[in-house]
Structure formats: structure tokens, C-alpha cells
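Researcher: Checking consistency across runs. Here is Fibronectin type-III domain-containing protein again:
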Amino acid sequence: MRPPAVPKAPTLTATTAGRVYVSYSDSYDADNLSLTYNVFRGSLNVGSNKYTTYFWQPRKTYQVVDRGLKRGSTYAYHIEVHDGRNITKGATTTVKIP
């Protein structure tokens, strides 16, 4: 059983209303079509979605909105992909709320 491919770091867009739009691309797994994508702010899971992905198709982009964040604070986000057995963690990206 092979683990999912490492997801790319998410793209973050912060607003003055204390929101962060977390955009991320799907990944793939050679032996599992259905993958769960967990979006983390630090160690807090702020979004979880399950998608069917095929390694030969172009990568799709998805988005989660994280609300209620404090202005002037910096937050770190990363994506974890789970195939039911293996978890693959992507790189962390930070953003400062204006």
C-alpha cells in the first residue's frame, strides 16, 4: 500500500474581517481513489473534505474558509491527505491577518 502523494502547500488569502481563505490542490494515490483532505491551522483541523481523484487527471483546486481570526496575528496552515491507512503531510504556509 502506497501513501498519497505529498500535497502542495496551501495558498492563503487573509481579509481584514478576520478570515483566511485556504486554497489547496488535490493530490493522488496510485492504489486509492478516495482521499480525505484535512486543512489544519496549527494543530486544529479547520476543514475536512473527501474527494475522488485520479492520478492521470489535472489537479483540482478546493477552498476552505477559516473565520474569527484576530487581526494582526500570524497563523500557519498545512494540508494532510489520508487514504484510510496512510497520512501524508504537506508543507506549512503562514499568513498575517491585516
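Researcher: Does this match what you'd expect to see?
Model: One thing to look at in this run: The CA atoms of residues 15 and 34 lie 32 Å apart.
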